[in-house]
Write a structure and sequence with these properties.
Layout: H1 3-17, H2 22-43, H3 45-56, H4 60-87, H5 90-109, H6 114-128, H7 131-142, H8 145-165, H9 168-177, H10 179-200, H11 209-223, H12 225-233, H13 236-248, H14 250-266, H15 272-300, H16 304-323, H17 329-342, H18 349-355, H19 362-390, E1 396-397, E2 400-401, H20 405-412, H21 414-426, H22 439-451
Antiparallel strand pairs: 1-2
Length: 452
């Protein structure tokens, strides 16, 4: 380990032992507003889907492509976003990225053609690439490893409130003002969040943040640009952690973001308002489950065992949702809540990845994992729409496609299959026990793998 790295790690360890104070939680909360906003945008199609299908005259497959444009951009820019966050001011990057998201939300709201709407949706996804990574980057600086899972759980909880806001609250706004004006109100909300971020966010917990940032850059320069990328790419933990969260996230990707409300309304026979409430409980389960899973994981100093248990229980729950007939409104509400709560073990992959890499490579490593995670939205939303259209008989109700139980079941098979693969993935993950990998340890593994 170089003298530069030793000095910086000593300084960072000293500053992080003093974190966890009230201001660290302020940083956590305010930075999470960006993630809240992006999760609202990511999941709003579940509410505005009928309006978009009517306005742009599209079916489920084209709607899935329109929604997925946001996530295609996200996947393309996530790894570059991680590299940028390792090298430049997190605060400045958040301000630029969120400004882009606010402007493109307003642009989407006034789009008159499907092509223009897709362009603004895609550009908004570029901004989203920085949302969660920036929160994790700040949390890794402001919190010690023994509290990182709890901090990540709180960040995800706040994001889920954004996802929940995209359900019943947005439904009411769309009913009152129309989908275009509702999205313009979302843009105004983004401006408020932008001002709060501008006032409160700081890059480092130490008073001399510029020195700490300069020291981080010195370490990265000593490693070299391409080798730093190689260290992130060759770490199996980054790939497996990303794949686990990708697949455990499928209920949010498919039920929560786009097709869940239609399934409940068309197949389960509930009203649109009841469907939006049931989907909201999916997010509510994740809101409660994320900090609980994070706290529990920190408490037992394990990441992998809770992740494994979450995959197994989730398989049983989603099969009940899809295959048990005549479920009451209360039963559906409880089941969707439990699915959200149990699949919250997905948040443990983030501290696992962060702990499996040196602090100076947090952005790159979590960025790589996030590429895999967000590819779930980019891939599975359009695939699900294509599967729904595959055996659709062409029935339309009020200019909106009407799908059968068989259509939905075929498409939603993606979810239990994904959970099974998630369980298999956990068998190959290495437990970190809340211990952060040093650069020396990772470089030793890198050298050994290349010698082999």
């Amino acid at each position: 380990m170089s003298s530069i790295e030793s000095a910086v790690l000593s300084q960072q360890a000293e500053s992080r032992t003093q974190t966890g104070s009230w201001f660290a939680w302020v940083i956590c909360f305010v930075s999470s507003l960006f993630f809240f906003y992006e999760f609202l945008l990511a999941n709003m199609f579940n509410t505005i889907a009928p309006s978009l299908e009517s306005s742009f005259h599209v079916t489920a497959s084209r709607l899935g492509i329109l929604s997925a444009g946001y996530f295609w951009a996200d996947v393309l820019f996530l790894f570059p976003a991680g590299l940028l966050l390792d090298r430049f001011s997190t605060r400045k990057i958040i301000l630029i990225a969120m400004s882009l998201c606010v402007l493109t939300t307003a642009g989407f709201a006034v789009s008159e053609s499907l092509q223009t709407a897709f362009l603004f949706r895609f550009l908004s996804g570029i901004g989203n690439a920085f949302s969660f990574l920036s929160c994790i980057r700040l949390a890794a600086r402001w919190f010690p490893p023994t509290r990182l899972a709890l901090a990540v759980g709180v960040i995800v909880t706040i994001a889920m409130v954004g996802g929940m806001s995209a359900q019943t609250p947005l439904t009411l706004a769309v009913q009152a003002f129309g989908w275009r004006h509702a999205l313009l109100l979302n843009a105004a909300l983004g401006l408020v969040f932008l001002l709060l971020i501008m006032v409160f966010i700081r890059d480092y917990p130490s008073a001399d943040g510029k020195t700490a940032h300069h020291s981080d850059k010195q370490i990265l320069q000593s490693i070299g640009f391409w080798k730093s990328i190689g260290l992130a790419l060759q770490n199996r933990q980054n790939w497996l952690g990303g794949l686990y969260t990708n697949l455990m996230n499928l209920p949010l990707v498919l039920f929560g973001a786009i097709y869940g409300a239609s399934y409940l309304h068309q197949v389960r026979g509930v009203t649109e308002e009841e469907a939006s409430w049931i989907i909201s409980t999916l997010f509510l389960g994740t809101i409660i489950g994320s900090p609980v899973m994070g706290w529990f994981s920190d408490r037992i100093a394990e990441r992998v065992r809770p992740m494994r248990a979450g995959a197994v229980i989730s398989i049983a729950l989603v099969l009940v949702v899809l295959y048990v007939p005549h479920l009451s409104l209360m039963s559906l509400t409880l089941l969707f809540f439990l699915v959200g709560f149990v699949t919250s073990t997905q948040v443990l992959a983030y501290p696992l990845v962060a702990e499996s890499n040196p602090l100076v490579l947090t952005g790159s490593s979590v960025g790589l994992a996030s590429v895999i995670i967000m590819s779930g939205y980019a891939i599975f939303q359009p695939v699900c729409g294509i599967l729904m259209d595959l055996h659709w008989d062409g029935t339309m109700v009020n200019d909106v496609p009407f799908y059968s139980l068989a259509d939905y079941r075929l498409a939603f098979l993606l979810i239990p299959i994904g959970f099974i693969i998630s369980f298999i993935v956990t068998l190959f993950l290495r437990e970190t026990h809340c211990h952060s990998e040093t650069l020396e340890e990772l470089q030793h593994e890198y050298t050994r793998s290349h010698d082999l």
